[in-house]
Design goal:
globular
Length: about 300
């Protein structure tokens, strides 16, 4: 099947809206940082809810390449955009700070059920009583209504992409996506189904449903899409990315990226058809799921080099 048809089928299966109007955003706070400005903004999500996000803008007039950064999960639903921007959590998740210092605009939104998108507790304070159950219910309620949490996540992600694309300081031809773990899952689906995304990196997420079920690996709530595995798998998503540059990062002891080699092997012929075999890049490391300084640096270097090559 041609990748365009495959993309349309998957998009229709999940119910992803192909286009969104550019959202107006309001600035709630502005901080001058070392070489950039950090704006706390809010814009409407796909269900007329509010999406809080940090927008990092380098000094200068631009236009700048831009990256939409999807935060990780790690069972820490009190951390979202703040971890990406180095304000809390793991420094090896602070991609936003390092990217803006390299001349990228960065949009780092909270995903639904994380940080300021939790109804019972805002900010970076955990709420052990409610965080898990709220997330679980958001998945279940959508399933019983014939939808999925993935539809919500990707629709929201595409609204963020539209915001970046229309920002006067962003180079709309050089907008990419980045994420690790839960964020990496979001990248796989969003980049596959949004052909306007110029490049992407998915870390710690390239694992097929087939392998997860064979190995008894948990499936993240947004990935619970009724009937999806009967027709598609993660390899199909990677095929839909051709011929755009995509970096998959995996590790030998990471159950969430355990068959990344097979995914790349099966998807590469599609990239070959476009004479773009070099655009499908896979870096496999020794170790487990968590990012290391080595992986963190290699991801940043790849993003900077890839964006510089796009005209």
């Amino acid at each position: 099947m041609e990748k365009e048809a495959l993309r349309e089928q998957i998009r229709a299966f999940i119910g992803i809206k192909p286009e969104w109007d550019v959202p107006d955003f309001c600035v709630m706070d502005e901080q001058a940082c070392d070489g950039y400005t950090r704006l706390l903004i809010c814009y409407p999500g796909s269900e007329d809810d509010d999406i809080p996000a940090y927008l990092l803008v380098p000094e200068g007039e631009g236009p700048f390449p831009a990256v939409l950064v999807h935060h990780q999960h790690n069972g820490e639903r009190h951390l979202g955009k703040s971890e990406v921007c180095g304000l809390a959590g793991n420094p090896l998740q602070a991609f936003g700070v390092e990217l803006v210092k390299r001349g990228f605009m960065v949009l780092a939104p909270d995903s639904i059920c994380f940080e300021d998108r939790r109804p019972y507790m805002k900010g970076i304070v955990p709420d052990e009583k409610n965080d898990f159950m709220y997330h679980f219910n958001e998945m279940c309620y959508r399933i019983v209504k014939g939808s999925s949490l993935m539809k919500k996540v990707i629709d929201d992600a595409n609204i963020g992409f539209s915001l970046l694309k229309q920002h006067p300081k962003a180079d709309k031809h050089r907008i990419g996506v980045l994420g690790h773990s839960y964020g990496g899952n979001t990248v796989l689906f969003q980049m596959a189904l949004n052909e306007e995304i110029a490049f992407g990196c998915s870390s710690g997420a390239a694992c097929t449903y087939k392998r997860k079920m064979q190995a008894g690996t948990g499936i993240e709530m947004a990935e619970v899409i009724p009937g999806f595995y009967q027709k598609y798998d993660i390899t199909d998503l990677v095929k839909c990315m051709a011929p755009r540059p995509i970096l998959l990062v995996s590790a030998t002891e990471d159950k969430y990226s355990s068959d990344a080699d097979e995914i790349v092997s099966e998807a590469r012929p599609v990239f070959d058809q476009y004479h773009a075999a070099d655009k499908l890049v896979h870096l496999r490391y020794q170790g487990g799921h968590a990012l290391t300084e080595e992986r963190f640096k290699h991801i940043l270097d790849w993003l900077a080099e890839t964006a510089s090559r796009i005209s």
